[in-house]
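Folds abound. A case:
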Amino acid sequence: MNAMKKRLGKEIRQYALMMIGLLACGLAYRLFLIPNEVAPGGFTGVGQLLNSLLGWSVGWVTLALNIPLFLLSARSLGLDFGVRSLVATIGLSLLLDYLPLPAATDDRMLAAVFGGVLGGVGFGLILRGNATTGGTDMLAKLVHDRFPMVKVSVVLFAVDALVILASALVFDATAAMFALIASFLMSKMVDVVLEGMNAAKAYFIISEKSEVIARRIMDELERGVTALDGRGMYSGADKHVLLCVISRMESVRLRNIVAEEDDRAFVIATDVREALGEGFRPHAKASGPVKSGQN
């Protein structure tokens, strides 16, 4: 019974995230991108181009391009992920055509920035809801499966680049430049929603006083420290290399501990894209293919 309730709660959360994400995407396109002729790649961008050239609706073009891909990918998607993704794709297509909202601005720069950010948040939430809206991600995977020498990233870049270049011909060169800005912001915001804003930093510390430094970090910051075996190639001396992952808020405290104990210590700091486990975000088992772009 508890397992069933837990599963039901998870399903509700995932569908809630997906619905909020769909609404955000619909707002991004209806308020900013479509009325200002900013087409940031993907099948939706193709729909925008055909809408301008032939008068075809953006949403129905997007849906028509996606349906064959879903049919070809049905076996690899899995039932739950496939159904959820099909719902998301149909929902987005309907919002693109029927969400009754006027343009929020006629300034293309504002449209590219706000449309890119809002759209990226939306697509990220859809992915967090364990769904995808298909698009060029699914096409890229199919091409890669058929021709393994062609990388997924190459197909994604090629399709988005062609759409943005075509927008320079269908709209104008300025529209293409703003589309590039929107595409960049959209991609970055998807990463932020999925992985956080570099919420953690990893520190590598090489010091003659590694034992004392490690103890203070564990006692004062309550963070774990791992000692890696190392050897100075110039001196030939064996050393401990301390590895510690902390939040950005704790960086100053860690550097102060190191400086107080050994102001000659060698310290390397690097951003961590994602930290899972004790003290950070808990592990979550993915139940479907991971996608990483806009529709």
In short: The first strand starts at residue 200 and ends at 206. Residues 287-292 have pLDDT under 50 and may be disordered. The chain has ten helices and four strands.
